[in-house]
Amino acid sequence: MKEYKTVKQIAGPLVFVEKTEPVGYNELVNIVLADGSIKRGQVLDTSDDLVVVQCFETTAGIGRDAGVRFLGETIKMPVSKDMLGRILSGGGKPIDGGPEIVPEKRLDIQGAAINPYARASPADFIQTGISTIDGTNTLVRGQKLPIFSGAGLPHNDIALQIARQAKVPGSTEEFAVVFAAMGITKEEANYFMADFERTGALERAVVFLNLADDPAVERIITPRLALTTAEYLGYELGYHVLVILTDMTNYCEALRQIGAAREEVPGRRGYPGYMYTDLACIYERAGIVKGKKGSVTQIPILTMPGDDITHPIADLTGYITEGQIVVSRELHRKGIYPPINVLPSLSRLMNLGIGEGHTRDDHKKVSDQLYAGYAEGKDLRGLVAIVGKDALSERDRGFLEFADLFEGQFVRQGIDEDRSIERTLDVGWELLSTLPVEQLVRIDRDLIKKYHPLYRKGAKAEV
């Protein structure tokens, strides 16, 4: 193996090497320092006279006298069923004090693109135990449904709750969670690890933790390592895998940092112009493949800088994924957990996974009526601020009260409360029973007679 002593420049995490023979994109590199120690890196860019290597560790100590060896292979993730229950670093190394993982296979972390013709249509309901997701923005197996949050909001608690509670009701198939955290603090990492161990969720999970003081380059490979693990568990071992990626904003900041070090022409707000393609390479690795028993479902979590949903990271994510769950600062200030605002939230595949045979025949209609009632009640809050509550009609006061009840009973639930979909829909009916029956214009009369509390108690109402 040739060793090149032609290091021309070092900029941030990048090492520029001159006069090499042809090398491949993403090829692994060993950088040998003067004291004999070795740092690992990866080919980021290659041309006739210059190769750019991104170092997985700090470039401190690398000088012009360092030797560079190109290894002729790309990064591969050692995968095994024994990974379940393990906590790994952002680079895929065990950090839980356990033994090294004995791999059954070593897979390229870039993954293989799924042929669109080979994709099966998602249709199986995943119960998260959170009413605002299960009831009004349903997650379907094989979907990619991001959570849009903001700094200081409890998105990590929501992520952990989903990781603990997610299941397919009535299914005996094996279910696993791959949890990848990028750019988190040591305190957050300890919190994640303690929660997984406290609740026993770690038994069916593989956890990747990339810390804030780890190199930015490692942040780029962490989600790819996690998804490669998920694809192995899903498509080769037959597991149904839920992948939770937090925080994609830290991932995109690492992209921007590396792009600046490469002196690339920046795109929107300084982010690389290829960020859309890069994010698509991650998000599109979710799905169900025809003929394969398992599936991969994704919940990426991102914090919107300045709570700006038009920010490039949130904007591009929304183009690629199938909806979004929006965490509300207003609800958080009211002390409501989980502070999920159902009005801007959306699950584009919801209708494929609900209804008779999946959840319950009244699911879609109840969801529509709850949404309409809450939207009208929130609009009336603005009117009350101008004209006062006394100026409202009796009907309007009913919807105003409904909005408060919706937030207090449907949205609000305990951090360890695991609601079944039946309980979620029953709570919805209890709320709708506070409105006059004639106002339930989005629900069929036969469903009202079947599920409305007035009819369940044997009372008579005009329908």
UniProtKB/TrEMBL annotation:
Keywords: ATP synthesis, Cell membrane, Hydrogen ion transport, Ion transport, Membrane, Transport. The keyword Ion transport applies. Its main location: membrane. Residues 7-72 form the ATPase F1/V1/A1 complex alpha/beta subunit N-terminal domain. It is a peripheral membrane protein. GO terms for cellular component: plasma membrane; proton-transporting two-sector ATPase complex, catalytic domain. One of its GO terms (molecular function) is proton-transporting ATP synthase activity, rotational mechanism. It is found in: Cell membrane. Residues 353-451 form the ATP synthase A/B type C-terminal domain. One of its GO terms (biological process) is proton motive force-driven plasma membrane ATP synthesis. Residues 129-347 form the ATPase F1/V1/A1 complex alpha/beta subunit nucleotide-binding domain. Belongs to the ATPase alpha/beta chains family. Component of the A-type ATP synthase that produces ATP from ADP in the presence of a proton gradient across the membrane. The B chain is a regulatory subunit. PANTHER family: V-TYPE PROTON ATPASE SUBUNIT B. Has multiple subunits with at least A(3), B(3), C, D, E, F, H, I and proteolipid K(x). This is A-type ATP synthase subunit B. It comes from Methanofollis aquaemaris.
